[in-house]
Amino acid sequence: MAKSIRSKRKRMLRNIKRERYAKKELEKLKQVVALAEKDKDADMKDLYTVTDPLGSTNKSADEPSGSMEVDTKNRDPKTLRDEDGHYPVWMNSRRIKRHKKRLQSMAKKKEKTQKAKKKR
């Protein structure tokens, strides 16, 4: 394929931009490195805290005072429905259909096995 003048021109302009932005990027990088070296000690102090091994034995101060109350609805492990007959939020409609179909097929198998036992 032939090289067009337009593509040559665009390539040349990209090279010019690359050189220009490389200078700006180098200056910013130097500034960031200088700031990082300056604040290195301050960052290290924030990473850990020194505690006295014999000092704080009061557990009530460490633990949160209130307990979280969460509304949990009882779900049937087989059907995955709650007391109101709703499926979990994370189940989409396609998965609900698949789950219903699976439950129906399991029920049919169970009926067949029970009928076979009665005939014996």
UniProtKB/TrEMBL annotation:
InterPro entries given in the database record: LLPH-like (IPR018784)
Protein name as catalogued: 18 kDa learning-associated protein of slug-like isoform X2
Annotated segments matching region Disordered: 49-120
Pfam families, per database record: LLPH
GN (gene name): LOC111108479
Gene Ontology BP term (one): dendrite extension
Molecular function per GO: basal RNA polymerase II transcription machinery binding; RNA binding
Basic residues composition bias: residue spans: 94-120
